[in-house]
Design brief:
Layout lengths: L3 E7 L4 H11 L7 E6 L5 H13 L3 E5 L3 H14 L3 E3 L2 H11 L15 H15 L14 E5 L5 H10 L4 E5 L17 E6 L2 H14 L11 H17 L4 E3 L5 H15 L9
Parallel strand pairs: 1-2, 1-3, 3-4, 5-6, 5-7, 7-8
Amino acid sequence: MPRLNLHLLSDSTGETLEAIAKAALAQFEGADVVRHFWPMVRSQQHLDRIMGDVAANPGLVFYTMASAELRLKLEERCGVLGLPVVAVLDHAIGALESALGQHPRARPGRQHVMNEAYFARVDAIHYTIAHDDGVAWEDWEEADIVLAGVSRTSKTPTSIYLANRGYKVANIPIVVESPPPTALFGLKHPMVVGLTTAPDRLIQVRRNRLLSLNQAPETAYVDADRVARELAFARRMYADNDWPVIDVTRRSIEETAAAVINLYNQSRTPKDFGAL
């Protein structure tokens, strides 16, 4: 398989463009792709500088640009070089324009406007960082979601991912020898979700963690019987409290977070529509 140079040009942070490219590339296993990332392209001079590298490393060009003038210049330059160029959001924007009967505003970085939702997301991130690993349990009632699970069930990275989506998240480790604060069992506002995983997978993750810390890879932390007891203890706690459970064994952080959000939305949907 030949190497492909993929140029990503954006007039904003390029976050959206990178996510689209990553999702598309995931469908091509083993593809040899070199990504060239060009964010904040907002002038003819900047575009001219970039096109030198594009010409030196010909390949495929993806772009998200609001300026009609820059879009035209980019497409003209790529046409001269004989390179395919793709405006990755055009189909989605066109469909929305047709459905809404409204012309899009050609303003770069519009999705990053510092509005009320932006500051709410920042607040969620601050809250989540301050309530990691069972810290500050006195404030858990302010959370949207509380994640519970034994050590190395991806509580922290899942919490941070959810915080970036605007959810205030606290997480608590479930330890057989150290029961969680009683406040956990009386929460009214947050949805508590239990995370679990397969014992073999948990042992593997824990052993890799020990090795990364230059610690002995064979301790009680990875003992098969002990791990099985931990997981069973946690599952009983989830069942006793009627908490929804997500098995993270074969899930990425993104997939686990999506499952949590789905549960959260379901929990907030009125079930008795006749009472509305």
